Amino acid sequence: KPFARYWMHNGHINVDNKKMSKSAGNFFTVRDIAAEYDLEAVRMFLLSAHYRSPINFSRDLILAAKNSLDRMYTARNNAIFMLESAPERDMNEAELAFVERAKQTVDRFDDAMCDDLNTADALGVIFEYVRDMNTQFTDANAPCKAVLEAGLKYLGVMTDVLGLLSKPFDATPEDIRALVEARVQAKKAKDFAEADRLRAEVLARGYIIEDTPKGPKVKKA
Predict the structure, then answer these.
(1) Position 17 pLDDT exceeds 60
(2) 167 falls in which pLDDT band (50, 70, 90)?
(3) CA atoms within 13 A on the CB side of 183
(4) 183 vs 217: CA distance, rounded Å
(5) What's the half-sphere exposure (Cβ side, CA atoms, 13 Å) at 128?
(6) Secondary structure of the chain: what % helix, strand, coil (to 5)?
(7) Can you tell me the distance from the alpha carbon of 125 to that of 115, in angstroms, rounded to the nearest whole number?
(8) Mean predicted lDDT score pLDDT of the chain
């Protein structure tokens, strides 16, 4: 559908045309949108523009908002995954610098929100921070527990204000963990056919196995 301006009114999304009607395709309820898209992605979409300004509405833009939200979840979940095996040590110089940048990022986020609730700029600040997290939190850098905890804390400080990243980290069910461990043992025994079969079974149950230097990482497909 062509892009059009919209505004929220009593739980409805209205497209900026002269005559509003559902049959004309220029009138949507939040329930209509929720049947097709996750509401957190809709929230992300609405936050991407200033509340005083019109915003283009299209399925492509909702999908783009969902993809942006997924990148945030990926950064958060990756940090949580690394936290499980992170070394207990003092932060090194690079990690201390990251934490200082994180504090400054929160200040910039606050400045954007204090500027008449400029959520679009606030999201831009979060995206920059997520990129910094992805650069800092890698297997090659081997981040310590303290810097991972700090990184997650400052991300949460910002996303909590906007009501984002509300879904908990997805703990892998016990039966899936058993299959993953069986695959690890099959690989050690060089029974690669069985390892492939187990990977396929895990995928059939809705999970993906990613092999990392710290062991297999499991996430929902």
Answers:
(1) no
(2) confident
(3) 23
(4) 12
(5) 14
(6) 55, 10, 30
(7) 14
(8) 84
